[in-house]
Amino acid sequence: MTLAHQTLALQTLGLSKSFGGFRANSDISLCVARGARHALIGPNGAGKTTFINLLTGVVPATSGTVRLLDEDVTRVSQQGRVKRGMARTYQINQLFADLTPIETVGLAIAEREGAGARWWSRVGQNSAVVDEAEALLTRMKLGEVMMWRTATLPYGKQRLLEIALAMACKPKLLLLDEPAAGVPEDERHDVLDSVEALPQDVTVLLIEHDMELVFSFADRISVLVQGQLFAEGGVEEISTDPRVKAVYLGEDAHV
Ligand SMILES: Nc1ncnc2c1ncn2[C@@H]1O[C@H](COP(=O)(O)OP(=O)(O)OP(=O)(O)O)[C@@H](O)[C@H]1O
């Protein structure tokens, strides 16, 4: 085993979140190895989105710790976590409808380089930014539509653009929030293929109900039920665990 495999990309220790008297996340201690393809599954309302919101700093934890690449980031801002290598996609489209993919990703790259708004009108003239944006969009199967207005893209392409946008931050840890949700059947395999083709050096934590994607993509699966970690293991272990089947698989899951 190499040193890279021994270090963790992400670790939570006793992470909890209460909304009033309701514990949406309860004492979650989770380790994600560097370079892992780790999936987080669980029934609706299990607390998966809350967990991602705690990881990214969208909501503060009630108690517990979040460590990113061996650094305690529990009290670091959302932007600070992005700067340290954590990026996420969202379940709901939050893209600029009137921009093209090349403008959207170009802007994110310029922002990453600290040039943000100053580059707004000049993104198209900066060849390094444009070259990187083109390469990223091509890898995400968006090369042919990179000059289209985002609002006119098929839904699956918009979901891919969300991932490209997160990848423009050059993350070390990428949090994918249901990338296949709502994608029509004829576009689904493009999304699955692109997720599987993400660079191996980027650690991925995937939240997903699509079990075909989870079982083909993940090397480790954690199951969340009623805000608590219920089970964790490899694909074989989780897919055949009768307790997991009883609470999740075969019920809510889109298998
Ligand atoms: N801001 C909030 N205030 C109060 N309750 C909340 C808040 N956010 C989430 N909850 C509650 O926490 C529980 C977990 O919600 P969460 O969205 O994290 O689950 P989930 O596993 O992501 O569900 P789904 O798979 O349906 O997206 C739910 O009962 C939800 O109603």
Automatic annotation (TrEMBL):
User: Which intervals hold domain ABC transporter?
Assistant: 10-251
Q: Which GO terms describe its cellular component?
A: plasma membrane
Q: Answer yes or no on keyword Lipoprotein.
A: no
What would you give as a GO molecular function for this chain, any one?
ATP hydrolysis activity
Keywords from the UniProt entry: ATP-binding, Nucleotide-binding, Transport
Note whether Transferase occurs among the keywords.
no
* InterPro entries named in the record: AAA+_ATPase, ABC_AA/LPS_Transport, ABC_transporter-like_ATP-bd, BCA_ABC_TP_C, P-loop_NTPase
Its recorded name reads Amino acid/amide ABC transporter ATP-binding protein 1 (HAAT family)
